[in-house]
Amino acid sequence: MGYKIQDSDIEISRNAGVSEDDIKHCVKVAKKLSKLLSESNLTLIWI
Prior knowledge:
The protein is mainly alpha-helical and 47 residues long. Helices cover 60% and strands 0% of the residues.
């Protein structure tokens, strides 16, 4: 399953006052997680 960061997700963070540096860090972490999930049999489940 492919996961993708939506522009609207980033806009929500900006509107909430999250700094650009923090947003960049979160995007970097999310991309790494997406790569890990795509290369494994793991599934991300949000509770």
